[in-house]
Amino acid sequence: MLVSILHRATGTALAIGGGILFTWWLAAAAAGPSAYASFHYYAVAADPGDGLGFAVNVLARLVGIGLTWSFFQHLCSGIRHLVMDTGAGFELKTNKLGAVATLVVSITLTILVWGCILFVRH
Amino acid sequence: MGTGTGIGRVRGLGSAKHGTVHWWHQRLTAGGNLILVTWFVVSLLRLPTLDHKAVVLWLSSPFVAVPMVLLTVNVFYHLRLGLQVFIEDYVHEEGSRVAAIVLLNFYVVAAAALAIFSILKIAFGGVPA
Q: Residue B59: which H helix or E strand, with range?
């Protein structure tokens, strides 16, 4: 029940938030270094002294973590749906286990990716 | 006009004359996304930095630009199918539903066109370093 509605919610979040962010990133890269610099400034590395820039930065980071989790959750429940499309995994116990597994895997992968971004690469 | 047999209806002769194509394409693009988006996420994490120079250099390789174009088409087609179902299920008033579907199509076509043009512009060397 929860995982099923999460598939739709995360899909919608990725479609709108992820789609806009992806396109903004590519268009900024194609527009040139100064357009890209403003994308990079607000999305990643604003000057800590700049209140607005820093606030947007924190917000972007929260959105980034949310989209990362949405991506992994949508991926896992998507694979679960493909398995269920074959007619497998409808027994109550197996089904419940699969649903819980999508949450465990998506949260673990999100922590791994953001641990890597925040602590390994910088 | 008869309703036909069950198998005849799903083979493209149902009420919308599209049978199971929507359902099947949603699965087909899901499989494509599984490969392409995993490649994309791993590639981004492997880039040393995400500054302009690094991203442009990365995108200028044909083995990056082509998968990126394929990814854009696949992702936007998949999300168009998904959001269409979302709208059809939750927007009940007919006028708003039609308007939402039109907006969705505008968004998908505009964003995908902008993304693909940007990838190709970089790949064909149009950005000064």
A: helix B52-59
User: The complex's ipTM?
Assistant: 0.89
Q: Is residue B104 part of a domain?
A: yes
Q: What is the pLDDT of residues B70-119, one digit of tens each?
A: 999 999 999 999 999 999 999 999 999 999 999 999 999 999 999 999 99
CATH number at residue A42: 1.20.1300.10
Residue B9 forms part of a structural domain: no
Burial of A40 (C-beta count, 10 Å sphere; 0-12/13-18/19+): buried
C-alpha distance from B1 to closest chain A C-alpha (Å): 32
Residues of B in Cβ contact (< 8 Å) with A36? 51-52, 55
Collect all residues with Cβ–Cβ distance below 8 Å to B86 and sequence separation of at least 6: A8, A11, A12
Tokens representing residue A38 in the block: 């403003």
Model-level pTM?
0.88
Task: State the count of interchain CB pairs (< 8 A) between A and B.
Answer: 75
Residue span of the structural domain in which A64 resides? 2-120
**Contact residues for B121 (Cβ-Cβ < 8 A; gap 6+):** A30, B127
Give residue-wise pLDDT tens across range B16-45: 677 688 899 999 999 999 999 999 999 998
- Residue B15: inside a domain, yes or no? no
In B, which residues are within 8 Å of A78 by CB distance? Answer: 30, 33-34
| Structural domains counted in chain B | 1
